[in-house]
Design brief:
- The structure is a single chain.
- The longest helix is centred in the N-terminal third of the chain and has 20 residues, at about 30-50.
- The strands form seven sheets. The chain has a seven-stranded mixed β-sheet.
- It is of the alpha+beta class.
- A hairpin with a 4-residue loop joins strand 14 (about 290-295) and strand 15 (about 300).
- About 35% of the residues are buried.
- It contains 13 helices and 23 strands.
- It starts with a helix and ends with a helix.
- The structure holds adenosine-5'-triphosphate.
């Protein structure tokens, strides 16, 4: 993990938030390469759950919602962790992590009994701070989709089974955030709420588990580091009937429901059967009809909801870990990020071999400008070719293109592959076609 964290800072993937003020703990900013990687990951998710299916509709609901939403959803009453404080060093722990111990793991001091601590951030809407103005920063994106269920039926008339998909920020006042971007108080979720007939719920749950598991594999996740873990009954969230986590083996020890003994298997995504809990709760609380008219049986039903809920930041971190390799090349260490071509922040780097030859530099810049119209492309002439390659390898750039003296005569450039380091000679007029072919396989 230290190597990944250092690479992220050194090369510009992830910075600590407010660092010049000593940093805000466990809060991170995505830097130039990080934001590209994160956007690529979100695009890959959206493509897979919205564009490549016929049954899911995109949404982008507001972060602030009517406070009654969180009463109806059960979050005001149930969304808490137990916390214990050390009477000596004043450190705070999640009671669950202490596994029954009454002694502070840091200083041996006495711990208080576990007290409930609601994880929702509360703030006030409007200029007056009074009880009636309380709003919450949403702890999940899901509710923004549930409360729009009737609107979607009216606007789009979808037939069961169908889903809504959304990516957005969520906030949880976690007692023990940590492990870089793995657990933070502000994070992004990518969630599908998939509405099904109650009798189909079990089968659809399994289909989504498989669909989501394969998404990670198709983007290059090593299958030895990915597994499914069904929840035990006593671990289930207040709304869930069944849940299976997709877990990744991170190079750190997190608590995780599986316990620290299991090492570093930690949740990337949960796929849950939320039953009709949410629709029924909102129907009761708002007085609005949240049912669906089934044309076949001519009856009104409350669909069950299958929810694949993943974390964007956790996925980004897992893909970074998965892609990090150190190799020996000609007695030198090569650090390379072997990110999938859909995820790599930069697709092509154009590198002139001689930066003091204006014809070469001009041609290289012209090629860059042209490629930029189609692919994320950068130009770099600020070092020796060896140094430029190393820099691009470390951030996962797929192809390095060099312009040399020969290019001026034969109108061909050298294209080097990040993973194999093999080189092709390609005509300038064929470059776009060549890259399109390489990035689409
Ligand atoms: P955990 O057990 O790790 O606290 P959870 O089971 O509470 O997670 P869910 O409520 O199922 O998480 O949220 C869905 C997804 O959102 C998680 O699988 C995770 O990827 C992401 N997520 C949840 N909490 C955080 C957090 N504090 N920081 C980063 N990502 C998070």
């Amino acid at each position: 993990m230290d190597k990944i964290i250092s690479l992220c800072k050194r090369r510009g993937f992830i910075f600590q938030s407010s660092e010049i003020y000593g940093g805000l703990s466990n809060t991170w900013d995505y830097a130039p390469y990080g934001v590209e990687l994160k956007n690529n990951l979100k695009r890959a998710w959206w493509k897979s759950v919205v564009y490549q299916r016929d049954d899911c509709l995109g949404m982008d609901a507001a972060i602030l919602m009517h406070p009654k939403v969180w009463e109806a959803s059960g979050h005001v009453a149930n969304f808490f962790d137990l916390k214990s404080d050390c009477k000596g060093c004043k450190k705070r722990f999640k009671t669950e992590d202490l596994k029954g111990s009454k002694v502070c793991p840091e200083c041996g001091g006495e711990l208080t009994e576990g007290k409930p601590f609601n994880l929702m951030f509360k703030t006030h809407q409007g200029p007056v701070e009074e009880t009636s103005s309380i709003v919450y920063l949403r702890p999940e994106t899901a509710q923004g989709m549930f409360v729009n269920f009737a609107n979607i039926l009216d606007a789009k008339h979808p037939k069961l089974p169908f889903g809504m998909a959304q990516i957005g920020k969520a906030f949880r006042n976690e007692i023990t955030p940590g492990n870089f971007t793995f657990r933070t108080r502000e994070f992004e979720q990518m969630e599908v709420e998939y509405f099904v007939k109650p009798e189909d719920a079990e089968q659809k749950l399994q289909e989504w588990i498989d669909y989501r598991f394969n998404w990670y594999l198709n983007l290059g996740m090593n299958k030895d580091n990915l597994r499914l873990r069904p929840h035990a009954k006593d671990e289930l969230a207040h709304y869930a009937k069944a849940c299976v986590d997709i877990e990744y083996r991170f190079p750190f020890n997190t608590r995780g429901a599986a316990g620290i003994e299991e090492g570093s298997w930690s949740e990337l995504e949960g796929v849950a059967n939320r039953t009709d809990y949410d629709l029924m709760q909102h129907e009761k609380s708002s007085g609005k009809d949240m049912s669906y008219f089934d044309e076949e049986t001519k009856t009104r039903i409350h669909p069950y909801i299958i929810e694949p809920s993943g974390g964007v930041d956790r996925s980004v971190l897992a893909f970074l870990v998965n892609a990090y390799f150190e190799e020996k090349v000609k007695d030198e260490k090569r650090v390379v990020l072997k990110l999938h071509h859909d995820l790599a922040p930069v697709k092509i780097a154009v590198l002139p071999l001689l930066r003091n030859r204006p014809e070469i530099v001009d041609l290289a810049r012209k090629i860059t400008q042209d490629l930029k119209k189609t692919f994320v492309t950068v130009y770099d002439d600020t070092g020796s070719i060896g140094k430029l390659y190393r820099r691009q390898d470390e951030v996962g750039t797929l192809k390095c293109l060099t312009v040399d003296v020969q290019t001026l005569e034969d109108k061909q450039v050298t294209v080097r592959d990040r993973d194999t380091m093999l080189q092709d000679r390609v005509g300038i007029d064929r470059l776009k076609e060549y890259f399109r072919e390489k990035f689409n396989d």
